[in-house]
Specification:
With about 90 residues, this protein is an alpha+beta fold. It has two helices and four strands, in the order ββαββα. It comes from Streptomyces mirabilis.
């Protein structure tokens, strides 16, 4: 499974992008479950955010959803954090 996160916005407006490929990972089932939950609660269009807040584009195996601070689900927040931390 390929999981991509693109973060835009914030005070400085700096974009950040990261990607994780779960193929061959021992923790792949955990990533898959988290990704499926995050995608299920995402929106098909970009939601309105808050001033200086972050907006996110989450893509899992070609399916893209959108989310924005401060209205992220716990699963979205966890997935975004993990991908941005571990992704290259």
């Amino acid at each position: 499974m390929r999981i991509q996160v693109r973060r835009t916005g914030g005070f400085a407006g700096i974009e950040r992008h990261a990607e994780v490929d779960t193929s061959g990972r021992s923790d792949a089932p955990e990533w898959h479950a988290l990704a499926e939950q995050a995608i299920a609660s995402g929106q098909g269009t970009r939601p309105a955010g808050v001033p200086d807040g972050f907006s996110y584009e989450i893509t899992v195996n070609g399916k893209t959803v959108y989310a924005a601070d401060p209205r992220l689900t716990e699963e979205q927040r966890s997935l975004i954090s993990r991908v941005l931390k571990e992704g290259a």
